[in-house]
Amino acid sequence: MTTAFASPSTFIQGKGLLKDAAKYIKVYGDHGILLTDDIVWKLIGETFYTDLVSAGLNIEHVAFNGESSPEEIDRVKEIGSKTDAAFIISLGGGKTNDTTKAVGDQLKIPVVIVPTLASNDSPCTRLSVIYSETGEFMKYMFYDKNPDLVLVDSSVIANAPVKFLIDGMADALSTNVEAQTVARAREVTLLPLQTQQTSAGLALAEKCEELLFKYGKQAVDAANDHVVTPALEHIVEANILLSGVGAESSGLAAAHSFQNGLTALTGDVHKMSHGQKVAFGTLLNLVLEGADDATLERYLKFELKFGLPTTLADLHLADASDADLMKVAELTTQTGETINNMGFKVTPQDVFEGIKAVDLFSKAYQKIHEK
C-alpha cells in the first residue's frame, strides 16, 4: 500500500492580512498577475492592488470573466505569457481560484490564493473543477502541486454575506463523511497518484467535522454581525484548510458525484450553490452506505439548523419526474466519478432510490418535529 498527503506550501490566516500581503508574496518575484472579477475588484480588489503596488510589486490586473472554462484559462494564460509573470494571484471565489491554479500550472509559476469567501475548499487543493463556457461540468483538472501560498484574511470573510460561510460549512460537512467511506473501502484519494489515505489526511477530515459541530452556530452568528471571533476563525479554517486538505488527501465518494450528476438537468436547481448541492449529497452518501437512523439524523439536524437543502423541493426539484431523477443518477454513477470509491458497485437505480429515500426521511423528520 502506498499512501500520500498533500497541502499548500504555506497557509496563513488572520484578521487584516490583506494590508500586509506583499511581504508574503514578494518572495515569489516582483511582478505578476492579479485575477479577480469586477465585483471583488470594486469591493476590495482595487485597494489590495494599490497596497501591493505601493509595496514595490509590479502587478497586472486581469478581470476574471466568471467561468473556470478552458477558454478563460487560455485567455489568462496568454496574458501571463506576454507579461512574463513571475506569479499569479487569485482574489475571489472558487472559480477564480480554479482558473488561477490552472494558469499557474500551465505557466509553471507560483500560485497565490487569496479567498474572499469561505464557501468552498478550492483555495488549498491541487485541482480545478472545469466547466464549459455555459456552466456545465466538464472534468476535474489535476496538478503536480498545491498552491504555493494561501492567504486568508478572516475580516474579509466576516464581511461577506453569511450564506457563503454556510455554503462552505455544507461542503466541509461532506469531508469526513466521504473520507470515512473511502477509508472503509480502502480506496484511493483525490491525489493524481493512485495512493491511499495517510492517518494525517484522515485526522484532518475528522477535525474538520469536529469544528463544524462545535463552533458552527457561534461562527454564523459572528458572521451575521460581521465580527471576527475565535469560533469564526475555527470555521474559516475548517471550510478552507481542513476541508480542502482533508478531502484531497482522504478522497471523495457519493456526495460530490451527486453534485456533478445534477448537471444532467436544467432549471432552478442550478441557482443552488456547490455547497448546497453537496449538502443533499452528504445525506445520499449516508443512505447509500446504510447509515443508521441516529447517524442520519445527526447530519440532517445540522443541515436543517443552517437552512441547507435536505429535500427535493429544497433543490427546486419537487416536480422533477422519475426520468429526470434517473438522468441525475446515471450521470452520478458515470465512469470516473468518485461514487465508485464507495467500496461496492453503486448503480443508477441505487442512486435513484437513495435520492427518494433522503427526500422522504427529511420530510418525515420535519413533520414529526413541527409539532
TrEMBL record:
Biological or metabolic pathway of the protein: Polyol metabolism; glycerol fermentation; glycerone phosphate from glycerol (oxidative route): step 1/2
Catalytic activity: glycerol + NAD(+) = dihydroxyacetone + NADH + H(+)
Record carries keyword NAD: yes
EC code: 1.1.1.6
Domain named Alcohol dehydrogenase iron-type/glycerol dehydrogenase GldA: residues: 8-153
Entry keywords, A to Z: Metal-binding, NAD, Oxidoreductase
Superkingdom classification of source: Bacteria
Enzyme class: oxidoreductase
Family the UniProt entry places it in: Belongs to the iron-containing alcohol dehydrogenase family.
Protein name: Glycerol dehydrogenase
Source organism per UniProt: Secundilactobacillus angelensis
